Amino acid sequence: PWRRCWCVISPPDEKEYQKQQKELKKRSAYDRSHVPVLKGDIKFYDSRKDGKKQKKAQPIATITDAYSAYAIYPQAKSLIDASTLLKIEGRVTVHSDPPSSTEGFIFIMPEVHPAVSGFEMLLRFLFPTWDSFGLYGRPGRLVASVLDPRSLMFAMPKHKRYGYLEILDVSTLTLDEGSTSWSEREWRKRLKDATGTRMNALEDGSRSHSRSASRSSARLSFGSGGRPKVGFADDGNLLQPGRE
Predict the structure, then answer these.
(1) Helices 167-174 and 184-213, packing angle to 10 deg
(2) Which superkingdom, per the lineage (predicted)?
(3) Residue 109: pLDDT above 70?
């Protein structure tokens, strides 16, 4: 059921951020190890309160460690421009008695202000959310590559065929040890990895076919450095997809 509430999006802790920056300055220039992504949270309250009273108030629920946040568009084309419906997936804590915490999702519909379109309200909510949880390349540059698993555009098909995975690709994952206990987040990551592997295989197959069909393949085989391939960096890793 829908519930009207006040939402507060908080950035990562400033002290933790300053501490991380100091540690990064001490690193060697050749150190390319993974840098953990600092994350904030989203809290929902019954009502808005001023100043420090808001921080002391007990929230209804809190979202932490979100791993996806995106708009949900209605089926009717006429309703798209006015829609503000979005979905956030991550760790959801409900502050009941006793409190409960689980991985799940929440649908949010920000209220539209006068003279502000639904699309603009979506952006006003989504960008702070992406920044708070380090999603899709934020708070840096938004990643738009179809080859980068961090991107909202990841695996968008270039041709008429939609999707890359076959039934066998998915059924193979179910045979992995421990797959029965995987969370939604883990399944999402495994499916992305499988999709990336399939994309690389299809790209390599089409490339070898085009070379064998070309008369000048022998002369062109030592040409350019190759096309970009799908990268498999962990979430939050700022490495770009590798090249051949």
Answers:
(1) 140
(2) Eukaryota
(3) yes
User: Going by C-beta distance under 8 Å and a sequence separation of 6 or more, which residues neighbour residue 125?
Assistant: 9, 84, 86, 108, 110
Q: In what order do the strands lie in the sheet with 86-94?
A: 6-10, 41-45, 61-71, 86-94, 100-108
One domain, residues 132 and 13: yes
Number of domains within the chain: 2
Summarize pLDDT for 166-206 with one digit per residue, the tens.
888 889 999 988 898 999 999 999 999 998 888 888 776 66
Q: 94 - beta bridge partners?
A: 61, 100
% of the chain with per-residue pLDDT over 90: 39
Task: Give the chain's radius of gyration (CA, Å).
Answer: 22
Is-contact 108 88, C-beta < 8 A? Answer: yes
DSSP letters spanning 188-243: HHHHHHHHHHHHHHHHHHHHHHHHHH-TTHHHHTTSS---B----PPTT--PPPPB
Token pair for residue 71?
């708009």
DSSP 51-103: THHHHHSPPSEEEEEEEEEEE---SSGGGTTT---EEEEEEEEE-SSS-EEEE
pTM of the predicted structure, to 2 decimals: 0.76
How many Å separate Cα 121 from the centre of its chain?
A: 20
Do 119 and 165 lie in one domain? The reply is no
Q: Give, as one character, the DSSP assignment of residue 12.
A: S
